[in-house]
Amino acid sequence: MMPELRAAVAAEWTKSWSVRSTWGTLAASAVLMMMVSAQLGIAHENNNTNEITTDDTGVTTAGAIAIESFAMMQLVLFTVAILTVTSEYANRSIGWTLQAVPVRGRVLAAKAAVLAPVMFVAGAAMCLLGALAARPLLGDWGTLDGLAYDAFAMGVYSAAGGVLTAGLALVLRSTATTLTALFVLLMLLPLMLGAAGSPAADFFPSTAGDHFMSGDTGEYPLAVALLIVLAWTAAAALAGLRLLKARDA
Questions:
Q1: pTM for the predicted model, two decimal places
Q2: What's the pLDDT at 51?
Q3: Which ranges constitute the DSSP H helices of the chain?
Q4: Can you name the residues that pair with 142 across neighbouring β-strands?
Q5: What is the tens place of the pLDDT at every residue in 225-236?
Q6: d(Cα 41, Cα 65) in Å, to the nearest integer?
């Protein structure tokens, strides 16, 4: 790594971990993940017990419960990525950042270099926490099979989603606006298109990410699902970089 980029990464790391919002958002994500997973675990156990199922068709994995939970609370985790960008615009420190690192591509590269591993670890941890919260409540209807893959896949999706979010935040420069746009992109549009039966729903990052995390190859291979997620990530990052170069701080 070039010395200039190494210095920029070190600065981004310090900025990210020296503010309480990063710690608070990660803690809130962990608590919410466990609460949602526990609730889904209880619901799954109750539904199967009340149906008096006599075979193993109702058995699920705790990792699958965690993935379902993450689909509902992923925006909370991605708020970490939003704040790494929008907080600098809110307090006007972006000007200092661009003076210290005048090559604007290096600014984005440094943010991505910090966000990607942090979000990978956070995503994998969310999966483990959700699975561990759900497993005791699933009773005979749950297992821990495949948890290692589930945690890895959620980490990969979270890392890509974090960089995608940062790119989107560079375009919009507002926490509320970025969060709204992310909600529309990851949740609202895929849900509406899916309800309408449109195949376009399968090519949104959250839908492809769900296929990748759950190991579902019904629509397309897992490699294609990952490529769709990475394509959205690259598009958002390039859009953010273009506007970062074109606009004043």
A1: 0.94
A2: 66
A3: 3-17, 20-50, 62-90, 94-100, 104-138, 147-172, 175-183, 189-195, 205-214, 222-246
A4: 60
A5: 999 999 999 999
A6: 7
